[in-house]
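Q: What changes when pyridoxal-5'-phosphate is included in the input?
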Amino acid sequence: MKLPETGRPAPEVLDALEAMRAQDANWRDGRTFSLVYHGGDALLGLLKDAFFKYFSENALNPMAFPSLRRMETEVVGMVADLLGAPEAVGSLTTGGTESILMAVKTARDFARSRGIEHPEMVLPISVHPAFEKAAHYFDVKAVHVPVDADFRADVDAMRAAITARTILLVGSAPAYPQGVVDPISEIAALAASHGLLCHVDACLGGMLLPFVRALGHALPAFDFQVPGVTSMSCDLHKYGYAAKGASVVLYRERELRKHQFVVYADWTGGLYGSPTMCGTRAGGPMAAAWAVLNYLGREGYLRMANSAMTTAKALQAGIRAEPGLRVLGEPHASIFAFTADNADIFVLGDELAARGWNLDRQNNPNALHMMITQAHAGRVDDFLYDLRAAHAVAVQHGPATSGAAAMYGMLGSLPDRGMVREFILDFMDGLDRT
Ligand SMILES: *Cc1c(COP(=O)(O)O)cnc(C)c1O
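A: The predicted holo structure follows.
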């Protein structure tokens, strides 16, 4: 590729962009169950308007744009209040990964201030890979522990994994794979009894669980109301229905957050202080996040959560009614996974894909994943109809012998995980070759 010698007219450029999306996942019609959290067309319009209003603004310098500083303070405050600690402090970040990176970096530097040089954190295997990334970037050792038969963190295993170098225990609310909330009260009590930090990753559930609870669904305690929880992450661009690029990291104590910041007083370009990973901080996602919280309000989020829960329960009932299909664990909200005891679940996944339904595949155990929002509300009957047909084909078919299903099954069960890592690396490396 070369930069074009001369430019093209704007309409032509925009048409070319439009044409490129022909093969993209169809998220508008409720046929995709990950990646896009669609709050409906009216909300989407508001997000775009708000985003464009602050399209060029930059929160890097909080003195230049007091508007963005105010939005950040208000958004962080609203989320802190929802999560049980109105007095908590935090930062707006670009996403769950950045929020988690910040929480781990903060824990590491807090530990360093207390003389712990080679820190470790204890992670149930169900936590998001962003913790792996944090371990990698910040040189904190990730110590993995199993989950129980219900897919929730095994707290005894966490206790056994604590050493003199442990700085942080992590739980999820809920964890992405099976949508179950870890026993946060037990994890936080364990952390407190050892003088450790405790992070609750509510990237997925932070803007959902408070409303699910208010609707009367049974939920274990998961937020700052639990003594011993010291930090939390909560994505706005998931169940907050904000534009992509918005998440919050929160600390119960202001003192702790200071370890997150990076300052440099000796630069020849001026005094420099940066709260998060990014230098330039885009105003658009901040404005869109502020806009959606004010547009929906508590009432709107309750409505969205109710729609997602009703739809998820109907889908789960339909899946459970199909002999041989099984929902994994007892999902706490509108995220869940299911598997098949009488068919290859990845053949079923391919059959669903052939019928226009995009479900993510997961391993250990093998399953298909569903993240439900209001966008899926009208889709239950269509989906269950196709599911029954796809399941019948998969039962007939037997184990996958070729294609994506066979490959996914094989990669999931290979005992040599090094080979699988090589495969993923080669795959990523090859993406720009064709
Ligand atoms: C999505 C997710 C993350 C990471 O968030 P990104 O916005 O994708 O970086 C972290 N934890 C959980 C539980 C998630 O679902």
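Observations recorded in class: The pocket of pyridoxal-5'-phosphate is lined by residues 95-97, 100, 128, 130, 172, 176, 201, 203-204, 235, 247 (CB under 6 Å).
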